[in-house]
Design a protein that fits this description.
Layout (H helix, E strand, L loop, with lengths): L7 H27 L3 E2 L5 E2 L11 E6 L5 E6 L4 H9 L4 E9 L11 E10 L4 H22 L5 E3 L2 E3 L6 E4 H9 L18 H9 L10 H13 L9 E7 L8 E2 L2 E12 L2 E8 L4 H19 L7 H7 L5 E7 H9 L14
Helix pairs in contact: 1-3, 1-9, 2-8, 3-9, 4-6, 5-6, 7-8
Length: about 350
């Protein structure tokens, strides 16, 4: 039987990983301070945690001194509150936040974890690529200082040099290169939030990717993504996977000149997704339409859905052009420390 996480032997085994986490934490703080960011703190309890289809929030019932109850959620990201701060006039903000997601446990998931989130007003998502490259380099250097390693990320036999510039590739080109599929050809209506699944299902089947008869377009996309594309990303050098189909970017603005895709990217190293970034959607009417669509899907999957954050929709009308990103701090620490799973880089896991 394995010793408990607090046992001296287990602490000793994990201590080099934890030292790397601590060094990385300091490096992240130093980077954003040098860049002129304001470090903010927002409440974990929110009216709405977000409506992403595959993220399950944890609800909390609050009672006032007289016993009146109101429902709140532990945030799955500090995004909504941070956008309100942007609308209030703060130009560059960052936060290392504890966040919660139900139904997540494994080598790359914990129900409670640390998210690094930051926003730049007056910029689009291209500005964040440079931030990511700098943070990856800082992570490699932090590991070198803490463990005297060579700074190379290693995980499950895969390697990635964080000092190398990220390769930038569109989702369309990645699907062509790794799956032999013309993804955008399966989207006939750029405005559709739920494209017809049949064309993509046929292409997936032709390449040997198994799908279900009732799978949605989004379901088929993720079958292909997880089986053929994602394992190839971030080998040798980091990868920025950009220009996601617009129906998979509910909070991002569409790309000028091609409404089929949105200004969204994800950062990968060693086949592990580290971050998700957007040029933020600032149109409250369009955002409401997307929220209502996702709310209906959430209710269909789980029997209920969180409410809309009406205050956020009001704030969007005052939100300047901006870009934001959420990075899994525990995953980055895991790769930098060459640990086997994120539990290795947690001071204390959820029991």
């Amino acid at each position: 039987m394995a010793p408990s996480w607090w046992h001296p032997e287990e602490i000793a085994r994990r201590r080099p990983y934890l030292d790397t986490r601590r060094a990385l934490h300091n490096a992240v703080r130093a980077y954003f301070q040098a860049e002129g960011f304001v470090a903010v703190e927002t409440p974990a309890l929110q009216v709405s945690p977000g409506l992403e289809r595959h993220i399950r929030p944890l609800g909390v019932t609050l009672k006032d001194p007289l016993g009146a109850a109101r429902e709140r959620y532990l945030h799955t990201s500090p995004e909504f509150a941070m956008k309100k701060l942007l609308a209030g006039g703060l130009p560059k903000i960052m936060q290392l936040a504890r966040v919660w997601r139900d139904g997540e446990q494994g080598p790359l998931h914990q129900p409670e974890f640390t998210m690094l989130e930051w926003y730049r007003a007056g910029a689009d998502y291209h500005a964040l690529v440079a931030d990511c490259a700098a943070l990856l380099q800082a992570a490699g250097k932090a590991a070198n200082r803490a463990q005297e390693t060579d700074g190379i990320f290693r995980w499950r036999g895969r390697t990635c040099d964080p000092a190398k510039p990220p390769r930038v590739i569109t989702v369309q080109d990645a699907f062509r290169e790794f799956a032999g599929i013309d993804l955008l050809a399966t989207i006939s209506d750029p405005e559709a939030l739920a494209p017809d699944a049949a064309p993509l299902r046929e292409r997936a089947s032709a390449t040997g990717v198994r799908t279900g008869a009732n799978d949605t377009w989004e379901d088929v996309f993720f079958h292909i993504m997880l089986e053929r594309v994602e394992p190839q990303l971030g080998m040798g050098a980091p990868v920025v996977l950009c220009e996601y189909p617009a129906n998979l970017a509910a909070l991002a603005r569409r790309k000028p000149g091609d409404a089929r895709v949105a200004e969204r990217f994800e950062l990968y190293a060693c086949g592990v997704e580290l971050a998700n970034a957007y040029s933020e959607l600032t149109d409250p009417v369009e955002q409401r339409r997307r929220f209502l669509h996702d709310q209906a899907l959430h209710a269909e999957l789980y029997g209920a859905a969180p409410p809309l954050d009406e205050d956020l929709l009001t704030a969007l009308a005052a939100l300047p052009p901006c870009t934001g990103i959420a990075l899994g701090f525990d995953r980055l620490a895991m790769l930098a420390a060459n640990a086997r799973e994120i539990a290795d880089v947690l001071w204390a896991p959820v029991e």
